[in-house]
Write a structure and sequence with these properties.
Blueprint (H helix, E strand, L loop, with lengths): L1 H7 L2 H19 L1 H23 L6 H23 L11 H13 L2 H8 L2 E11 L2 E7 L11 E5 L4 E5 L5 H5 L1
Antiparallel strand pairs: 1-2, 1-3, 3-4
């Protein structure tokens, strides 16, 4: 039923599947055709979502989850389209692009999610949970980064450590 389908939606799994399909489409049809295919799939998903929701008695909780998922879909799609593995750009070396495609083909859901939408963690103000220091997750935007902070970025392949220009030396020495 539609209710069971809406409860079972896993955005990361959907995007992982689309990302892997995009790799094969690039190999078979080229970048521009693969990008058009991805845009067409996004449009079809939106049309299906809105046509299924008309006239259905959906609980507010399921509607909220579906609205969140379909709000986030464009962010994931942009993440795929702007990623070096799928950009139609001549400044990306062939060996780099091939290594990205190879990594994505065998990657799991969490790795591909980090690949398409990198994660930003605040290291300078760790939270203590069950005796362990846990980094605070931040939205990946410029307003989250300050000159007095230390941040870790996970892009699915690398961890990048960024020190602000005005980081206190006592924090660094810890």
């Amino acid at each position: 039923t539609p209710m069971q389908l809406y409860r079972a939606i896993n955005l990361n799994a959907c995007m992982t599947q689309l990302c892997k399909k995009m790799i094969y489409a690039v190999r078979l049809q080229g970048y521009e055709k693969a990008r058009q295919l991805l845009r067409l799939r996004l449009n079809n998903m939106y049309k299906a979502y809105y046509s299924h929701n008309r006239g259905l008695a959906i609980t507010p909780q399921i509607k909220q989850k579906c609205d969140l998922i379909y709000y986030q879909f464009p962010l994931y799609f942009l993440g795929i389209l702007k990623h070096d593995a799928f950009k139609h750009a001549n400044n990306i070396r062939v060996d780099i692009r091939a290594s990205l495609h190879s990594a994505l083909v065998i990657a799991n859901i969490n790795t591909i999610t980090s690949f398409m939408i990198p994660q930003l963690y605040s290291i300078h103000n760790l939270k203590e949970e069950n005796g362990q220091a846990i980094p605070h997750t931040l939205p990946l935007n410029i307003s989250s980064i300050h000159d007095d902070g230390i941040y870790l970025i996970n892009n699915g392949i690398n961890f990048i450590l960024r020190f602000g220009n005005q980081v206190n030396n006592t924090i660094i020495s810890q």
